[in-house]
């Protein structure tokens, strides 16, 4: 078994013995050799109801997971960047309907793919401009090179944009280059998981007049006392090793990819660049649950967070009907998308017993978090294994957490 801290389970409305199933279940993955490490933490009514961790931070050296282990959170960076953008919206410095080209000229006169091979793509002018809201909702027409399902993905890979960007490029250079790639569809007409939040990070830099890491540090991390979250590991000795594993295979170290987190990067990825700890990201999630406020520190107004956590897909559609169901850190049926998060619309369609209005996101190393305003609850899960869909961890975690609620 891993290390369990039950804290105030009963006071938070949980059955402690049922919560302990979380540790039993996750430790089972470790014992079978399918997962290197884990840490799960559940907070309700302001109380840490449950926290358990186990496995090895690094298997080769037999270094155990500890409460202060650091993790690459990858796409759980996206909600942080989205919060940063909405802070600028609140200050009147940015508007959701602003064309992206107003801040990044490379995004003027964009073209949409209509046919042909990637090396000789046939394109047409976009029907309308890409807007800031499209970046926040992944409806910009952008894509990811690693998706490997469409010629626009191949265009990105051929240019060196698969996981990450070409060596030596900073955020300004990379997002300018991305602006020249053909879009998969006209902005606002569909949903596709993409580099949109990286582009949004560059918009934050231009509007604020400061680098993304500095904005995060001074406007979000320091106010929230998130002292161990940055674009690199603040203590390399506590950084978990990154692994690959799926389908019952033993975790295999991804040393080259994982090493990127050991030093400050040239490219500040607002879509996937942060390293964080359990306690730090729990504080971020609790700020969201507090509708923009935590421990007397307010980053956003109540209504702004409510607005972000509302489905923004046209006509109230879910991702299953409006999105391209190829890859994402969330189910598609019954799930909408807000300004930076997936948003639960219909738990029955999604297939697990959560609450309508629950929102959150995950990262490609299988981390995940969610905020459930109806239950006054946050859950954060950390591990370091790619791909994130190698095992049904996220569905299982929700089942286990909600089965332990007994009030």
From TrEMBL:
Residues 22-396 form the Beta-lactamase-related domain. InterPro entries: Beta-lactam-related, Beta-lactam/transpept-like, Diverse_Enzym_Activities. This is CubicO group peptidase (Beta-lactamase class C family). The lineage of its organism: Bacteria, Bacillati, Actinomycetota, Actinomycetes, Micrococcales.
